[in-house]
Target: C2H2-type domain-containing protein
Amino acid sequence: MSLAVRRTWRRLVQTYTALCARDDAAKHGVTIPSGVWACVRCHEPHLELSALQHHLRTEHPGATAG
Model:
C-alpha cells in the first residue's frame, strides 16, 4: 500500500471516529460521555484535561496525561 493511500485511509478513520462514532453509538443505545477524563491509575474522574494533569502531578508524580 502506498504512503498516500495509507495516509488517506488514516484520515478517513480519524474523521469517522471524530464525527460519527457518537451518533453510531447512540443508534445502538450506548451513551458516550463527553468531557470526562479518568486517571488510569486510580480511576478518579475529571471534567477537564487540565484537572487530570494537575491530579497526575500531585497524586502520581512522574505519570503523564497522554
Q: What stands out?
A: The chain is about 55% helix and 5% strand. The CA atoms of residues 37 and 57 lie 15 Å apart. The longest strand covers residues 37-38. The radius of gyration is 17 Å.
